[in-house]
Design brief:
The complex is a heterodimer. Helices cover 55% and strands 12% of the residues of chain A. Chain A has helices spanning 2-6, 8-16, 24-37, 45-54, 62-71, 82-93, 116-129, 134-139, and strands at 60-61, 97-104, 107-114. Chain B is globular. Residues 1-16 of chain B have low confidence and may be disordered. Classes of the chains: A alpha+beta, B mainly alpha. Chain A: InterPro entries: Metal_resp_DNA-bind_regulator, Tscrpt_reg_PadR_N, WH-like_DNA-bd_sf, WH_DNA-bd_sf.
Chain lengths: 145, 183
């Protein structure tokens, strides 16, 4: 029996798994499903962090958020401001932020602020960020153990 | 060099681990292995492909729970095995299996099938027999002889005591022997 089982790998590959392959299409399908589930996935954590903290205490207009990002050197939405608005829309539809229209000098503008759900997410993330990164430890020297 | 400094100024120290790259890596490195492992549980190509996709999405979500006590491979296999077993217990799967059992129980028109069975090589018979083993024997045989995992790794993957793994392997070989010699 042992002798036969030694050949199991070869025979299963040949007979049982012959039509099986996890192809590039399958991998793409996984990526697409991921993208659909988390439309904000391609943005860096810093960008998301800046957006969330910028509207944590005071509601802001999309343009103001954009200025804060640029001020921080984050050029993600440079010359493609539209993506910021779709991103804000995504977060709004998932209940992390809320937008309210208000009238200013005959112009309607939408102001965004963090909902309780959004604040909770931000605080949870902030707690995780408190864990010292390896870089911080190395910079601080290894004397302390 | 100067550009590198600029880069790190834009992305400070708390830049999180790139989970997407992690997903790409594990799909590339383990996609085939996971698909095969899934197939040994569900014995259906389309279902195996779907479940494998689900499993990778699950790994992405569960990445935070990965700790380096186990190897990536053991971690992936454990998620895979659990996912397959959940699927096999699900209502959807049971319904599909019953339907297929009914169809295969219908009398076939020609005698060709019998001839095919006889003509199968002993290697093929063994591979078929492994696929027909009860799950608890099939999984240990597969992980031990096909995946060539160590007993400790099998124990960690299946979350079953190592002595139980040993006795199941022994029993599985006996059952296989009977199945192959019967033909």
């Amino acid at each position: 029996m042992e002798k036969k089982l030694a050949r199991l790998k070869k025979s299963m590959t040949k007979h049982v798994f012959k039509d099986l392959s996890f192809s590039a299409e399958h991998q793409n399908a996984v990526r697409e499903r991921l993208q659909r589930r988390y439309p904000f996935i391609s943005y860096s954590d810093n960008t998301l962090w800046t957006i969330f903290t910028s509207i944590e205490h005071h509601p802001k207009h999309g343009f103001d958020i954009l200025q804060i990002l640029f001020h921080k050197g984050d050029m993600t939405f440079h010359r493609q401001e539209g993506y910021l608005y779709t991103l804000l829309h995504t977060f709004e539809s998932r209940g992390f932020i809320k937008g309210e229209w208000s009238r200013e000098k005959d112009k309607w503008k939408k102001y965004y602020f963090l909902t309780n759900k959004g604040k909770k997410a931000l605080h949870k993330a902030a707690q995780k960020q408190k864990a010292p990164s390896l870089k911080n430890i190395l910079e601080g020297g290894l004397a302390e153990t | 060099m100067e550009e590198e400094v600029k880069e790190s100024a834009v992305f400070p120290a708390n830049t999180p681990f790139d989970k997407e790259a992690f997903l790409d890596d594990i799909m590339h490195d383990y996609g085939h292995d996971i698909l095969r492992l899934v197939y040994t549980y569900v014995n259906n190509k389309a279902v195996a492909e779907d479940l494998t996709q689900d499993i990778f999405l699950k790994c992405y979500r569960k990445f935070d729970q990965f700790n380096y006590e186990s190897s990536i491979k053991t971690w992936l296999y454990r998620i895979t095995v659990n996912h397959c077993k959940d699927y096999l217990r699900s209502w959807h799967c049971r319904k599909v299996m019953i339907n297929e059992a009914v169809i295969s129980a219908l009398p076939s028109k020609d005698k060709q099938v019998d001839d095919e069975v006889i003509q199968k090589s002993t290697d093929e018979q063994l591979a078929d027999a492994v696929m027909r083993l009860p799950m608890k024997y099939r999984e240990v045989i597969y992980l031990f002889y096909y995946e060539e995992l160590k007993l400790e790794e099998i124990s960690a993957t299946l979350n079953v005591n190592i002595n139980t793994i040993k006795s199941r392997l022994k029993r599985a070989r006996e059952v296989l022997k009977m199945m192959v010699e019967e033909v």
